[in-house]
């Protein structure tokens, strides 16, 4: 019986620690943004996601930071909710190019068990809009603004 629950306990422990870590980093990112230390596409973003192909939706937050391992690229650390009680997160690293006062972000990443994820975003001022797709033929949108 113990061996049946061991994978679940390991997964639950990892998921909980991941959520706690995101919450700590979220509070720090919001404080930095509110203090005026962040003025680019970096920092906290909050809003929602919708999958247009099946109507699923949920809350979405992101912390964007310059990648330490890939110069000129940015880490997009997402944390989403779905079904009102489930949540999870992932990080993708994509290049961002400046076009006038906007940043354009286009990238694709293999998320293993969850398939290949791609998104195309336009980030400007206090607006973060993106379309996304995956290899399961789901299409959707992210819409976020700076936290108030």
Characterize the structure shown.
18% of the residues are buried. This protein has a single domain, classed as Quinohemoprotein amine dehydrogenase alpha subunit, domain 2 (Lipocalin, Beta Barrel). Strands 1-2-3-4-5-6-7-8 form an eight-stranded antiparallel β-barrel. The protein is built from one helix and eight strands, in the order αββββββββ. The radius of gyration is 16 Å and the shape is globular. It has 148 residues and is α+β, with helices and mostly antiparallel strands.
Architecture blueprint of SSEs:
Blueprint: H1 2-34, E1 43-51, E2 57-66, E3 73-82, E4 86-99, E5 102-110, E6 116-124, E7 127-134, E8 139-145
Antiparallel strand pairs: 1-2, 1-8, 2-3, 3-4, 4-5, 5-6, 6-7, 7-8
